[in-house]
Design goal:
Distance between the termini: 88 Å
Structural class: alpha+beta
Helix content: 40-55%
Number of domains: 2
CATH architecture of the largest domain: 2-Layer Sandwich
Shape: rod-shaped
Radius of gyration: 41 Å
Largest sheet: 6 strands, mixed
Length: 197
């Protein structure tokens, strides 16, 4: 019996030692594995967040580039700083081609700031000619390379002249022209080539 007892005690002691050594080595290793798994999960979340942020930035840059490219042709139709005379000359050429007399007034006192680079300038054009000529002039205004928003048009018969086969009319056109500063970014000045990010 004593041998059996020694055998049971020996096995129990060896089991306790194995469990003790296994616990002393295994538990910290299990905790280290769990901690490492948490760190890996945190790093994976950070990488996913960075990837999502980069994708959002890339998409935003692409969208901004597309917006700039679509704005450039419209911006090119505004009167550029330093080229105001070209706008006046275009209106005068349209009047000459239509066979009407005209006077144009840029009401810069009443201009409105649309952005720090752009102004909306009221324009008043008084035209005299036959009704057909006035219509041709208005058609020419519409086809000018400038964006001119018509606010109001009034047409009246010209009572000052003698009656003729072609009755003359006076037309007053109130419109708005858009002026862009030289300091505006390229796309706001209608630059043709907008770099894509």
């Amino acid at each position: 019996m004593a041998a059996k007892q020694r055998y049971v005690i020996s096995i129990s002691v060896i089991t306790v030692l194995i469990l003790g050594v296994g616990g002393a080595v295994g538990l910290p290793s299990a905790f280290a594995v769990r901690e490492r798994a948490g760190q890996i999960a945190d790093e994976r979340r950070r990488i996913d967040d960075d990837f999502a942020t980069r994708r959002a930035i890339r998409d935003s840059a692409s969208s901004l580039g597309a917006t700039k490219a679509s704005m450039a042709p419209l911006a090119a139709m505004s009167v550029q700083e330093g080229d105001e005379l070209a706008f006046i000359t275009a209106v005068e050429a349209a009047a000459q081609a239509a066979g009407v007399t005209q006077s144009i007034t840029l009401e810069t006192v009443n201009q409105k700031e649309r952005s720090k680079y752009e102004q909306a300038v009221p324009v008043r054009i008084v035209v005299n000619g036959t009704f057909g000529e006035v219509l041709r002039f208005m058609d020419a205004l519409e086809r000018m390379p400038y964006f001119l928003t018509t606010e109001a048009i009034s047409v009246s018969g010209n009572r000052g002249g003698a009656a003729t086969a072609a009755t003359l009319v006076d037309a007053v056109i109130n419109a708005t022209a858009y002026w862009t500063s030289r300091t505006a970014p390229d796309f706001a000045r209608g630059a043709a080539a907008v770099p894509q990010p």
